[in-house]
Amino acid sequence: MTHRIAVIPGDGVGREVIPEGIRVLNAAASGLEFEEFPWGCAYYEKTGRMMPDDALPILARYDAIYLGACGWPTVPDHVSLWGLLLPIRKTFEQYVNLRPVRCLPGVKSPLAGRGPADVDMLFVRENTEGEYSGTGGRVHSGHATEVAVEVPIFTRTAIERVARYAFERARERSRRLVSVTKSNASRYTYVLWDEVVAGLGAAEFADVTLERVHVDAMAARMVMRPDTIDVVVGSNLFADILTDLGAAIQGSLGLAASANLNPEREHPSLFEPVHGSAPDIAGKGIANPIGTIWSGALLLRHLGEEEAAGRVEKAIEAVTSEGEFLTAELGGSASTAEVGQAIAQAAVSPPT
Ligand code: IPM
Ligand code: MN
Q1: What is the pLDDT of residue 24?
Q2: What would the pLDDT profile of 229-275 be if each residue is shown by its tens digit?
């Protein structure tokens, strides 16, 4: 079966890691058609836009979107993100941002004594509203009286749909779900969140144990007792922050993968590493491609290529556990391409 994938390498190391992701996906599965779009900050410098006017209708025609990174010091971050990634997430109702946080064999976690047996979490991040609603404004610009407001928006619909997805994942795994809020300090939005999640749990997921944890306590628990955490659901901002902590626990931000999912498949979903464009190491060929390759495995799974997805994940583990091809931040000396080649070789589909 043919799958058409729109590729946006984007900025910085995004352009170095995406070719490795494509290399591995092509090794693992057949029938993938990639088409590349040169959108991002360099495109902005030429055109004044991060992507063209008709970008969203163009992307809508693809089965999936594979993104490297978005953002560069020449363009303010809020301009680059609100010109590309955030409109894609919102327009295509990619309301789940799925982020596995798993320690890989052969990679040392900064948490002493912790490894693959202790750290295997699955974050389900609300991805369309909350603290990222974009509602707000500034008045009296530049004056002493200047005011800025940014209003988080939480709707019952969006809370319930992301919670349902998280409960379903919990049901497939350990039947334990942690819901993260801060409903002691915030009296409205997170209290609504807690009510909706608890109500859904009671009505449809009585077999799943739901635990409500405040985000501050959750940060501590991820460090102290990661072994007690399985599936986690949280708001856009909280799960953004906690998944960077998760990436650190994995041993490198370069390992962390994500899938921006429209579970109903009415629109394409987007797959991207959690890291950004990393201007400090861009252009050197040393960025870790594993987060991108792992995101590619999530892409294959979403397209129904479960067997190939599993093979890519196994290939990543085989290469990290073997230890010959690791990038510098993991203590190795392999280049981005060498890691990609090693994983591609291990992921090759068996002859049929
Ligand atoms: C991420 C990133 C983005 C986010 C930024 C770049 C807007 O940090 O995907 O986690 O906060 O969602
Ligand atoms: Mn982030």
Answers
A1: 98
A2: 999 999 999 999 999 999 999 999 999 999 999 999 999 999 999 99
Q: Is position 132 annotated as part of the catalytic site?
A: yes
Q: How confident is the model at residue 351 (pLDDT cuts 50, 70, 90)?
A: confident
Per-residue model confidence as pLDDT tens digits over 126-182: 999 999 999 999 999 999 999 999 999 999 999 999 999 999 999 999 999 999 999
Q: Over range 285-299, report the average pLDDT.
A: 98
241 CA distance to ligand 2 centroid (A)? 6
Q: Are 101 and 243 in contact (CB under 8 A)?
A: yes
Residue 293 to residue 272: CA distance in whole angstroms: 9
> Rounded distance, CA 48 to CA 109, Å?
42
Does ligand 1 lie within 6 Å of residue 274's CB atom? yes
Among all ligands shown, which has an atom nearest to the Cα of 127? 1
User: Which residues, listed in sequence order, are joined to residue 97 by a DSSP beta bridge?
Assistant: 125, 260
Ligand number with the minimum distance to the CA of 132: 1
Counting every residue written for the chain, the total comes to: 352
For residue 240 and ligand 1, the question of a CB distance below 6 A is answered with yes
Query: Helix (H) and strand (E) counts for the chain?
Result: 12, 12
- Per the prediction, the chain carries an average pLDDT of 98
The protein residue with its alpha carbon nearest to ligand 1, atom 8, reads: 240
10 alpha carbon – ligand 1 mean position (Å): 14
Residue tagged active-site, from 90, 108, 120, 182 = 182
The domains found in the chain, sorted by start residue, are 1-97+254-352 (3.40.718.10), 109-250 (3.40.718.10)
Residue 230 annotated as catalytic: no
Residue nearest atom 5 in ligand 1 by C-alpha distance = 81
What is the CA 6 to chain-centroid distance, rounded? 17
Cα–ligand 2 centroid distance for 42 (angstroms): 22
Q: With 0.90 as the threshold, say if the pTM is over it.
A: yes
